[in-house]
Amino acid sequence: MSKEFLGYHSEWNLGSPGGWDYQRMAQEIGKFAWAAITKRSGVNIELDFDDPILNPVPNFAQTLLRFHRKHSSQEKPFIALVAEEETLEKVGENIRFVEYLNTLPDVKAALLNPSQLQLKDREIVINNEKVTTIFLDFNNNVIVKLKKQLDLNALLSAIDKGIVINPRGMEPIGAKGVFEVITSDRREKLSETTVARTPWTRQVYPRKTTGPDGQPIPDLVQWIKDNWDRIILKPVHGYSGKGIIIGHKEPNRERALKYVLDTGDYIVQPLIPLELWAEQFPWIDKEKKKVFLKSWQTDFRCFVTDAGLIGFVTRFGGIPTNVGSGGGVQSTAILRSDIPLQEAIRVVNQTILDLGFDYIWGLQRELDKKSVEIGNVYLLGPIMGTLRPRLITQGHIEQLKNYAKNLWYDALILEELWRKGCLDTFVQITQEEKSIAQRAPWQGKPALIAADGLFGFT
Ligand SMILES: Nc1ncnc2c1ncn2[C@@H]1O[C@H](COP(=O)(O)OP(=O)(O)OP(=O)(O)O)[C@@H](O)[C@H]1O
Ligand SMILES: [Mg+2]
Fold this sequence. Notes:
The chain has about 450 residues and is an alpha+beta fold. The protein has 2 domains: about 1-55 and about 170-200 and about 275-458, no CATH class; about 200-270, Dna Ligase, domain 1. The chain contains 12 helices and 24 strands. Strands 1, 16, 17, 18, 19 and 24 form a 6-stranded antiparallel β-sheet that branches. The chain has a 4-stranded parallel β-sheet with strand order 4-3-8-9. A hairpin with a 2-residue loop joins β21 (about 375-380) and β22. α1 (about 20-40) packs across α10 (about 340-375) and α4 packs across α12. The longest helix is centred in the C-terminal third of the chain and has 34 residues, at about 340-375. It is globular. The two termini are about 10 Å apart. It binds adenosine-5'-triphosphate (ATP) and magnesium ion.
């Protein structure tokens, strides 16, 4: 058994987590690259890209089908993936997922905008055909916004009927302020793995509180100033790395803090030591015609469902490590050879360096071409990838499964607390968003949660 891996999750997403299809594509490209590298170099290390835990798409589809069977056990599934109109032709992940669902026996699926849903005899229909399950690709604040422009009666009624996954009542638990609950007075009620992997979190406003080591902090704003190089500030409802302020990268702390206090709804966390979740990957210097080792930050999104852990999205980049902030998606492989993980990483890196610039540059161009062919693109170009996968062991997978199972039950405890009104100070949402969430309690129904891990596997 490998020793317990290090690291923390930076956030949980319970609204409508994505990335499943980007990982499927990253696996395809990573496997192709590794086959070329082993053929060329003869390196003798066994890497598994095909274990079912490495491709979230089929597992996510099964989650939707379990949800469907819970409320419509007699009917054949007709799944609508509902997204905002302007995304329908652009977001490849949704297009391909619907195509995939349509390949499953007895499953029908369609990609729609919310106003294409209709209400007929109290059923939700599209072209007179009953929709049994809806996966919603936007958050509750978008429902509030769209309601002002569109007729959303059918969608709202679908939410009330409990046929929308994720149930809208899950989203409030994904507010980043909830981590304060986990790292303060409620910690005893939650699993050890959850508490240990949640970074100390506090909502930012003039207050006294307790610090990361339980020490009293008489004035949080002053404490943030004093610890500026060791903290990160994040909007409670942020996404894609937007609005994140990294202390040591921001020279004017007074101005940044004023912005945070004026805007409100920010949290502070310690900056998770960067070396813990950084790894070296072979990288190409086009100008100097060199292959060298570059240190990247990583982000290990774990997908958690009622069936436990179902896969990952493994990202890399700077800080923040989001594709929208210039990062990429990489493949993940399980090390099957019986050698220590760090040794495998060293050998794989060295093997790629030894292949030299000309070969690796040619390979990179092939990978980019393949990316464009299969739709692994963001804005105008191929999504960045790495020449080798992120490596983990079967022992890490077992630990992650345990972590995921506990996380699911802890999220349920937190949902219960939110319903009782105990989390209102940590989850500040508008009354309209709140009433949407209250329409559809989750209570453990099949669903998808994403926990973004800043993990170091050694
Ligand atoms: N406590 C932390 N310490 C160091 N870096 C962090 C911390 N929290 C977040 N980050 C950096 O910011 C990135 C995004 O963080 P987080 O997942 O909390 O925000 P987000 O904007 O909601 O992202 P997403 O696109 O995943 O929704 C992380 O990948 C990481 O690079
Ligand atoms: Mg994240």
